[in-house]
Write a structure and sequence with these properties.
The complex is a heterodimer of chains A (258) and B (193). Chain A is built from seven helices and five strands. Chain A is mostly helical and 258 residues long. In chain A, helix 1 (3-12) packs across helix 2 (18-30) and helix 1 (3-12) runs parallel beside helix 3 (34-50). Chain A starts with a helix and ends with a strand. Chain B is mainly alpha-helical and 193 residues long. Classes of the chains: A mainly alpha (258), B mainly alpha (193). The interface between A and B is large, with 48 and 51 residues.
Chain lengths: 258, 193
């Protein structure tokens, strides 16, 4: 039994002082065979510890699995949310004021109906006797030029708070009217104001629908703004977040799906 | 039933647990953890860290295994696969702690070299385990009991001293001599084999 052995054991037991550790390092450098003896003791110590009782790690492992997978999914969701750009401040609006803001939508709807009625009357005037052609007749379309590059989507605006410049045309469902023209491509109607502009055709979800915050409580029954999120953790490779108010889901995110 | 067929059954059962875990049955994965936590614990103790660090490494081994479960090839030894993951974590941990564990530098270098090859590491672990078991048989009753109480039962030196009716210093000395004796015996046996 040597001084190096004694210091090694003290170090393995966590009882060696810094001075004793330095002394051990010096002895290991200086004495022949000291390093082999040191390694032998360390290896036996590890083997003896391996025979000891170990805590049951099952519960803790399962908790960590759930936590790590949830963290990963939340990180993925937050990355997607951040990719949609900075979140504009959401001012609190009273119910009366919200209703007041809906009047441009009414104007827009009325204007669209009026335009459709005028066009319909004009077409009726030019239509051959016997009314409209049968629905089975193939639609005659003029060749269309390639679509112009898409302008940036106008932000959600309210009366009096709209973006600078002329108001953009509202996007309404692409129903051909007025001889094949598409409503979204018609010139703006004077006095028309964009209330909201969602274009679902390019597979983009509206930004408005991608924003939100996670809260640890159920939606209040009367809430009109709250949606429910579901976190599915089935299997190591299929983690899905689904956020929905009604079917179909507003938002779905899957991480690491195999 | 022969040991070989028992091992085959265990392997098939483990593969079935893997298949179910991959299908989303987390209880099957929990069963795998129960089945192999002792094996992984044995690898993790090689780090010579404290109990909390060792337990963390065991847990992380299973978390990593779950994340890579689809990489496991059925029919292979999953216990060995898990121990391979644990060894990689031990190596990472030893590298990370190289500053704190300067005094363990030569042991760290030894482990990093040994763990480069899973077969070599497995073989060394088996030889060491066998040699240690044989050498413990050669110890006198008092040091053998002190070792068993301290390592197998997980009792503190103070508790061991109380149980074997010795002073604290005497018990420390007993444990110290027992470990040195085991080291000498194990080295002789390994050299002979």
């Amino acid at each position: 039994m040597s001084r190096a052995d004694e210091l090694t054991i003290r170090m393995l037991d966590g009882e060696a002082s810094p001075a004793e550790r330095e002394e051990l390092a010096r002895l290991l450098d200086k004495e022949e065979g000291a390093e082999k003896a040191f390694l032998g003791l360390a290896e036996v110590e590890a083997a003896l510890r391996a025979t000891g009782p170990h805590p049951d790690v099952v519960g803790e492992v399962m908790v960590r699995l759930r936590r790590e997978r949830t963290d990963r999914v939340v990180r993925g969701v937050m990355r997607q949310i951040e990719a949609t750009g900075p979140r504009p401040p959401a001012p609190r609006v009273s119910r009366a004021r919200r209703l007041l803001h809906l009047w441009p939508l009414g104007v827009l709807l009325a204007a669209s109906l009026a335009a459709a009625a005028v066009v319909g009357l004009r077409r009726a005037g030019h239509a051959p006797r016997g009314g409209h052609p049968p629905a089975t007749e193939p639609e005659r379309k003029r060749p269309q030029p390639p679509p112009p590059p898409k302008p940036p989507r106008p932000p959600l605006s309210r009366q009096g708070e709209g973006p600078a410049g002329p108001p953009a045309a509202a996007h309404v469902p692409a129903t051909p009217i007025a001889g094949g023209a598409v409503a979204g491509q018609r010139p703006p109607v004077p006095g028309e104001v964009t209330v909201a502009s969602f274009d679902f055709d390019d597979d983009d979800s509206p930004r408005l629908l991608l924003e939100g915050q996670l809260v640890g409580q159920p939606c209040p029954a009367a809430s009109r703004r709250c949606v429910l999120g579901t976190l599915s953790l089935y299997g190591p490779r299929t983690n899905t977040v689904t956020i929905e108010r009604f079917k179909p889901p507003l938002f779905e995110y899957a991480s690491g799906r195999s | 039933m022969t040991p070989v067929s028992q091992a085959g059954d265990a392997s098939r059962e483990s593969d079935e647990l893997v298949r179910r875990a991959l299908a989303g049955d987390t209880e099957s994965f929990a069963a795998l953890v129960r089945r192999y936590e002792t094996d992984v614990w044995r690898v993790a103790t090689a780090m010579l860290g404290d109990r909390v660090a060792t337990e963390n490494l065991v847990q992380q081994t299973f978390v990593n295994a779950y994340e890579r479960l689809d990489q496991y090839q059925p029919g292979r030894d999953i216990g060995r696969w898990l121990k391979g993951i644990a060894r990689n974590l031990v190596r990472e941990e030893m590298r990370k702690r190289s500053r704190e564990t300067q005094h363990l530098a030569s042991y760290r270098e030894y482990l990093l070299t040994l763990y480069e090859d899973d077969d070599t590491a497995e073989q060394r672990a088996r030889e060491l385990e066998r040699a240690l078991a044989a050498c413990r048989q050669t110890l006198a009753e008092a040091p053998a009991r002190a070792l068993a109480l301290h390592y197998e039962e997980g009792l503190s030196v103070e508790q061991v001293a109380a149980l074997i009716s010795r002073t604290l210093a005497g018990t420390r000395q007993l444990l110290f001599r027992a470990r040195v004796a085991l080291r000498d015996c194990v080295q002789r046996r390994l050299l002979a084999s």
